[in-house]
Amino acid sequence: MFLLRFLLLVMAITSVSPLTPQTFAQSDDEERVLDLQDEYVYGRNRGPKIGYIKPEVFEPLSDPLYRAGYKNYRAVGVTGEQQRMTAMKRTESLGSILACADGWFWPFSRTARKNEPAGLEIEILNAVAKKHNLNVRMMWVNMSTRFGYGAPGGAFDLSINRGLCDLVLGLTVTGSDEHQLDPSEVIYTKPFMSTGFVLVTRGAVPGLTSLNDVKRLNIKIGLPAYSPMSDYADENDIPHETFFQNFRVIDAMLDGTVDAAMIWSGAISQAKLNRPDGDLRMVEGYIPIPEMRWDSAWVLKSTETEFKKFIDEAFEEMLESGEIKRIVERYGMPFFPPTH
What we know:
- This protein is α/β, with parallel strands linked by helices.
- About 30% of the residues lie in helices and about 20% in strands.
- It has helices spanning about 1-15, 65-70, 80-85, 85-95, 120-130, 155-160, 180, 210-215, 230-235, 245-255, 265-275, 305-320, 325-330, and strands at about 35-40, 45-50, 95-100, 105, 110, 135-140, 165-175, 185-190, 195-200, 220-225, 240-245, 260-265, 280, 295-300.
- Strand 10 (about 220-225), helix 9 and strand 11 form a beta-alpha-beta unit.
């Protein structure tokens, strides 16, 4: 009886499974062709995969570039004695700055293959290190955890709180994020730039220079849904339509659903690469309004005063020389100086 049931079960599975040989059987007069879709990794073809579908949202658990890097693991070669040092002494002893960053936060940071740009913040850090004959050792951590990077089990717990790095990149100073910083006893460095929502058009739009012109000319703009910019537009009667995620806002502008877009300045770099023929332009001379502009900084432990001074002084020097501005603009992103 058991054998009979087993055979029936095998026959049933064989008849419906999409992976069985019968599925791929070909008749003599019909040749079956498997379509190969290109693997999509940041706008480049990485060789064919069967049935691969481009993900709309980055997923660290499946992304090949993220998985290839160090994730929540200390960079190799750090001894127990070095772990007990201050961040500055450890940096000098190792000859390297230990840093953590999100593995997919373009244009700021990403795990990059050989000869590919690693992100503007990685380049800034490398420039700081090079001035002092140091190297950089990166550890990749997912900054987009459910309850925030500073929550229990968040990015800080997986990285700097475990002593795996001395510096966390990719932070935005919102002015209301003490609940994310205080539990981990971390503080911001001095800011090195600022980002914000900027006005973007497809080609030139005569007479459009500010949000006041948007209202005056009755230009309909696209905005990311549930964003600070969406709330601002509602409160100030700016004609708009909302879409989920910045890239959908860009698509809506390109297909004529809206006349212009207000997107986060970091998204311009991604949009230019994904839509190279879109003739996307930030309105010349546009400066984000104060309510929609935030400083960018890095995070380190509050006790590491010497290391903070080291990073802060490097930022001051690079801002004065224009080096940070040059790095940022190489990524197709507008540079705005820090507000504080």
